[in-house]
Amino acid sequence: MAQKSPGTGLSAWIAWTRLVVDPMASTSAPSPSCTGPLGRRGFMQIGLTGFASLGWPALMNLRAAAAAARPDQRTAVILVWLRGGCSHLDTYDPKPEAGSDYRSPFKTISSKVPGTQLTELIPLQAKIADKFTLLRSMAHNGPGHPSGSLQMLSGDTDSADKRMPKLPDWMTIAHYLRAQTREPGPLPNYIGVNPVTRYDSFTIAGPAYVGAGYAPFSVLGDPSRPDFSVPNIGVESESATRRLSDRVALRHSLDRLTRAVDQAGEMGALDAFETQAMNLLTNPAAREAFDLTQEDPRTRERYGMHRWGQQLLLARRLVESGVEIITSVLDGPQCGRVGNWDDHAVNHHVFDALKYRAPFFDQAVSALIEDVYARGLDRRVLVVVSGEFGRTPRISQVASSGGGVASAPAGTVQPGRDHWPRAFTNLWAGGGLQTGGVIGASDKRGEDAIDRIARPGDFLATIYQHLGIEAEKIYLEDFTGRPVPILPHGRPIPELTAAGV
Question: What is the mean pLDDT of the chain?
């Protein structure tokens, strides 16, 4: 059976080269989500026109910042995403004086920061509260999971749910801009360890007009399993490496024929993706970065020998190896019956669900934050923990749609909290921030943000600033060729800028 051409993009080329190394390997291994293969000229039309519209001053600033920073000084972001929306009243913004229809059943506890209280569900985070800042006044107008996610990840202000994003997410944009200012390393610069891509049938993040080549390298599966491995990473035998190199050399010979009539120079851009694929397959550093067995067993146990703990440990290993944009979704079986934080009463008994998942969540997040500081990564690595919104302060009582972990049998009336974008909390750690405080506030019931209200544009502008990206000055061309700003609304949150900046 004839083997297909790799087409374009890193994931396609990896799949093709994997077949060369191991003809029996499956071509159906998970790959980054994209809108479909782009032709060579189509890819470059998106990539080059977008690059041309960056603006000379903005591009020079990016290059100057990149040149001034050593690889171990370049800023990076780890986004820990709580798909479905975490209840702020039951975790980071307790309201012990609210009425019984609103108040969490969980006790409030004092944190290491005087005056800052959390709930008893997250005692490990309470002990290190001096190492993070809570933003308790996040708000937007996206009531659904897709719209809320698109607002938080791409800055789309539309309140309607959409099947696909019309704007690229911040991760893709940062990946694209950083690609213009850094030499390719052994690892992709944007990796999703259980990536932020979908909510059920909706795509909630993606590259849009930036181009499918800038989608994340996706790491799927459970890193806590003894047999966990990342497909298409590392070719260990010399014979396999020779076969791969021979095939690449043959392809280069064929490409030279195309290059002779390739007046626009598009082949050079595809070579960058090919180089990245070859690095993943042959560079020992790439294989080592994904190998959790190299960690001290005590470190692995501190994060937790469960999926969420090992996901975040892998994120730390990757950022320490030079990856600059990492996302990790905490969902799946550790959430309860429906596998996410969407704690409607039809899905979960909200309080049973939170009690079930809290030990995993608290252990993994606190370990990541502690590790970032202990390993001297805290000035350059920003850790952000958020979901698309919070949950309704008022507790609902509705019949369960089915029994299972953290849910009573079908028909049993149980408590739940529904979607709530008017006030919720996210956590910020590292990034050179002056931590140990609280920004903003919600009202006495946690229904509305009332002080230092932050919008998704502010959230994104703050992340961009940490990455050295002047979002208000950078434009990219959309599918119609019209230059559009990467962030039309929002300003960095002053309290969340690096100390001394």
Answer: 84
- C-alpha–C-alpha distance, residues 146 and 138, integer Å: 17
Higher-confidence residue: 72 or 116?
A: 116
* Segments forming the whole domain that contains residue 235: 10-496
Q: Which of 487, 500, 432, 430 is nearest to 461 (CA)?
A: 487
Q: How many CA atoms lie within 13 A of 140 on its CB side?
A: 33
* pLDDT score of 401 more than 50: yes
3-class SS letters over 80-102? EECCCCCCCCCCCCCCCCCCCCC
Closest by CA to 430, choosing from 5, 10, 79, is: 79
Query: Which 8-state DSSP code applies to residue 54?
Result: T
**Residue 4 counted as domain residue:** no
Q: What is the dihedral of CA 467, 473, 205, 346, to 10 degrees?
A: 90
pLDDT average, residue stretch 19-33:
32
Q: Spell out the alpha helix ranges (H) of 283-399.
A: 284-289, 297-303, 307-320, 350-374
Q: Is 1 inside any structural domain? A: no
411 part of a folded domain: yes
Closest residue by Cα to residue 156 from 453, 485, 417, 431: 485
Q: Domain total for the chain?
A: 1
The enclosing domain of 130 has a CATH number of: 3.40.720
In this prediction, residue 41 has a pLDDT band, given cuts at 50, 70 and 90, of very low
Provide the residue type at 164 as one letter.
M
3 is a domain residue: no
